[in-house]
Amino acid sequence: MSRCFAMLKPGVVNRRLVGEVIERLEKKGIKLVGLKMMHVSQELAAKHYAEHEGKPFYGELVSYITSGPVIAMVLQADDCVTLVRKLVGSTKPSEAQPGTIRGDYCSHVSHNIIHASDSDESAEREVNLWFTENEIFDWDDTCKIWY
Fold first, then answer.
1. Chain-centre distance of CA 109, in angstroms?
2. pTM over cut 0.90
3. Could you report the per-residue pLDDT of 46-93, keeping only the tens digit for each?
4. What is the pLDDT of residue 147?
5. 48 a catalytic residue
6. Contact 86/99 with Cβ under 8 angstroms?
7. What's the helix, strand, coil split of the chain in %, to 5?
8. Which of 38, 54, 96, 122 is a Cys-bridge partner for 117, taking CB atoms 3.0 to 4.6 Å apart?
9. Which H helix or E strand runs over 46?
């Protein structure tokens, strides 16, 4: 089992799609082990998007995730990052396939509705940035035989 960080951005909350998006992840068999709704501080946003600092879209990224509440999640599954990225779809809405979360709900790259770790290294960094160990609950999944 590996872990992945995912964040539902303010547009998901505003459009009342939180339950629908989480349901799609859970129906795939991905285990939700950390979940919280929060307002993102400028400091946390800067740390999260540090790799993009200096790029033309950096300010827009920070502005968007600090504009309203987000849903931060720690997900767990076999090869979690790869699995979640496939469900989420391409970052560019024009390239996101129908049936993916972005393909079905996102129309503009600057208002991308979901973030998902893009590597195991990023997942570890992001999980540790957004969650303390006390906020992660690895529970016994008695339905795991079905996934």
1. 15
2. yes
3. 999 999 999 999 999 999 999 999 999 999 999 999 999 999 999 888
4. 66
5. no
6. no
7. 45, 20, 35
8. 122
9. helix 42-48
Q: How many Cα atoms sit within 13 Å of 84 on the Cβ side?
A: 31
The answer to whether the CB of 70 falls within 8 A of the CB of 37 is yes
Q: Give the span between the Cα atoms of 67 and 41, in whole angstroms.
A: 10
Cα separations in angstroms, 68 against 17, 31, 41, 45? 14, 26, 10, 12
In the block, tokens 């992840």 appear at 25
Q: Cα dihedral angle (91, 97, 98, 102), rounded to 10 degrees?
A: -10
Tokens matching residue 116 = 């998902």
Per annotation, catalytic residue among 39, 48, 108, 115: 115
